[in-house]
Amino acid sequence: MEEGRFCGTRPRVLLRVLLVLLVPLLIGAADGLYSIPLKFSAARLNSSAGLDLASGGLSLASDPAGTVNFLDMVDNLEGDSGRGYYIEMTIGTPAQAVNILVDTGSSNFAVAAAPHPYITHYFNRDDSSTYRFSGGFVAVRYTQGDWEGELGTDVISMPKGPNGSITINIAAILSSEGFYLPGVNWQGILGMAYPLLARPDPSVEPFFNSLVRQTGIPDVFSLQMCGAGVSSSTADPAGGSLIMGGVEPTLYRGSMWYTPIIQEWYYQVEILKLEVGDRNLNLDCKEYNTDKAIVDSGTTLLRLPVNVFNAVVETIAQTSLIKDFTSGFWMGTKLACWTKGQAPWTFFPKLSIYLRATNTSQSFRITILPQMYIQPVTEVDVNLDCYRFGISSSTNGLVIGATVMEGFYVVFDRAQKRVGFAVSTCAERGNLFLSEVSGPFLAGGVTSDCMGDPLLKEPLMWVIAYAMMGLCVLVLLLLLILLVLPCRHRRGRDSVITDQSSLVHHRIK
Asked: Which residues does 128 contact at the CB level (< 8 Å), separation at least 6?
């Protein structure tokens, strides 16, 4: 091979090798980074440990400085599980009022910035003197629906939230498909999870991070959703409370039990076992945490990994007093109806989820009565009361959605990396509480890790992606240096190509 020719060819050959190796990896990483689990279940569209007050991290009274008054935040949510729970906010200068869906399973603050047939109004950026375009665009895809828009910043305030205004990142939704649905009364979404879920990348600071940084409130919020056992009703939505900065004791009864946050992206927790009635499903505890197990107010139903879902359905069918139940009911495609006034609750068992406690050798149990997962729907027939199944199968992890959360006052204690559960004061129907919390139980047989083999989770994907990009930059810089270095076109008198150097050349070739 001629030395002058090799000098000119070498960079091109190296570049081809680099592209062949790295492009598939980068594409794979991108696919992992931009996938978001299902939020609203299609089923809803069918017609057919004690509280430790001295441990820190929680604020149980109004802030003396006047930033936080928890009683002012009580009943600041409207809506129900079928159409989501939302809070009123004002955006921009002058202020424009919008309703924003509260979602603990995402991290972007996004609001409609263009007309849509299913919404009554939207945020007009041109009318706000404080709106600033950040120079970027964002697209979020859900299993059902998606939206695209531009990134900007503006001031927001909450009539029933912490005092004052803050400046936050806003995704102005310019187009969407399947995101807004008929009958919803909200115009945007309030992602309350961690920066690792923010789109297009974690540098977009989420709303609650901005709120804590700018107001100094504790890094804690708590959520009460009051739709337990109530059908969706336009005339009388269930409502609830989003307490920002701490915990309001009047919203729960009994003890508050905490489970550790396993990973700070979603609110990921560790589930040890499930019981249907008094029957343990006897599955390997890793089955419950397949992919991940999260607490997500933006998901309508309790979603279970396929194997777990099938075991739950089979056990419910065996223990219920109803024979030959149609499979369409379990799959969410059909309703079950009874003669008006004939409540089906006695036919179905309780459902219990065991979570690892902060004392990792112990667990506690959250239980929902059948009134929570056999859910009434709006009137279909004047002579019948009809119900849907509030549990569905999932291919991307276990999701404790509104079906379960409506029974509890849920505390997202980010300061101490834990999620708390206590019986909600509004999870009561006819003097009967529809949920229970009990413990502690020894985590016998499941004291080891139930998270399964380490998977390539999204935070790790970000690290790998950035490492790949850094590697690409480094190699490209080396290639540029090789291109500008002078090439020796004539071999000197003492220059010898040895067998070893020829072999190296052929390997590169």
From this structure: 91, 92, 93, 94, 96, 154
Distance from C-alpha of 460 to C-alpha of 417, rounded to nearest angstrom: 19
Q: What are phi and psi of 101, to 5 degrees?
A: -65, 130
**How many Cβ atoms sit within 10 Å of the Cβ of residue 288?**
26
E strands, 214-361, where?
A: 220-225, 240-244, 252-260, 263-264, 267-268, 271-276, 279-280, 293-295, 302-305, 336-339, 351-356
Global pTM reads: 0.78
Structure tokens at 168: 């936050």
Q: What percentage of the chain exceeds 90 in pLDDT?
A: 59
Q: At 360, phi and psi to the nearest 5? A: -65, -10
pLDDT at 430: 82
Rounded Cα distance, 86 and 131, in Å? 23
Residue type for 359, please? N
Burial code of 206-241, b = ≥16 C-beta within 10 A, e = fewer? bbbbbbbeebebbbbbbbbbbbbbbbbeeeebbbbb
Residues in the chain, total: 509
71-129 per-position pLDDT tens digit: 999 999 999 888 899 999 999 999 999 999 999 999 999 999 999 999 999 999 999 99
Read off the DSSP letter of residue 211: H
Q: Which whole number is the average pLDDT over 422-440? A: 93
Long-range contacts of the stretch 380-386 (C-beta < 8 A, 24+): 380/47, 380/335, 380/337, 381/337, 382/340, 383/339, 383/340, 384/337, 384/338, 384/339, 384/340, 385/337, 385/338, 385/339, 385/340, 385/341, 385/342, 385/343, 386/335, 386/336, 386/337, 386/338
Structure tokens at 314: 């089979």
- Tell me: pLDDT of 452 over 90: no
Per the annotation, the verdict on 296 as an active-site residue is: yes
DSSP labels, 353-410? EEEE-SSTTEEEEEEE-HHHHEEE-S-SBTTEEEEEE-EEEESS-EEE-HHHHTTEEE
The single-letter DSSP state of residue 64 is T
Q: At what angle do helices 458-484 and 3-33 cross, to 10 degrees?
A: 160
Q: 72: burial class by Cβ within 10 Å (0-12, 13-18, 19+)?
A: middle
pLDDT tens digits, 4-44: 333 444 444 444 444 444 444 444 444 433 333 334 433 33
103 part of the active site: yes
H helical segments located in 133-266:
207-215
- Residue position matching structure tokens 């006695």: 346
The three-class DSSP label of residue 274 is strand
Catalytic residue among 63, 103, 154, 385: 103
Selected catalytic residue, list 154, 296, 385, 413: 296
